[in-house]
Design a protein that fits this description.
It contains 2 helices and 4 strands. It is an alpha+beta fold.
Length: about 90
């Protein structure tokens, strides 16, 4: 699936993420993680987001995640919501 437009979902509240999904004109998936849990849990956050992107057949996207100690299910839900919004389904 090709990402056509930039979308942002989530909040900066505790135990949530602010996630921006946008097209990657260079191709491939790039995930940038910042925020409170980024240093300690960056690989887990990246893995959760990448798992959803693969499941939803996203091939070319830039994902910017600002973490505020979010749980795995919140990261997955926000990633899924961003993809659906980018497709115009939300």
């Amino acid at each position: 699936m090709k990402i056509e437009k930039e979308v942002t979902v989530g909040t900066e509240e505790r135990e949530d993420v602010l996630l921006t999904l946008k097209p990657n004109p260079e191709g491939g998936i790039k995930i940038n993680i910042t925020g409170k849990g980024a240093e300690q849990f960056g690989e887990e956050i990246r893995s959760a987001a990448m798992s959803v992107l693969k499941e939803m057949n996203v091939e070319n996207a830039i994902v910017e995640i600002k973490d505020n100690w979010a749980f795995d299910y919140a990261i997955r839900a926000r990633t899924r919501a961003a993809v659906l919004a980018a497709k115009g389904e939300v």
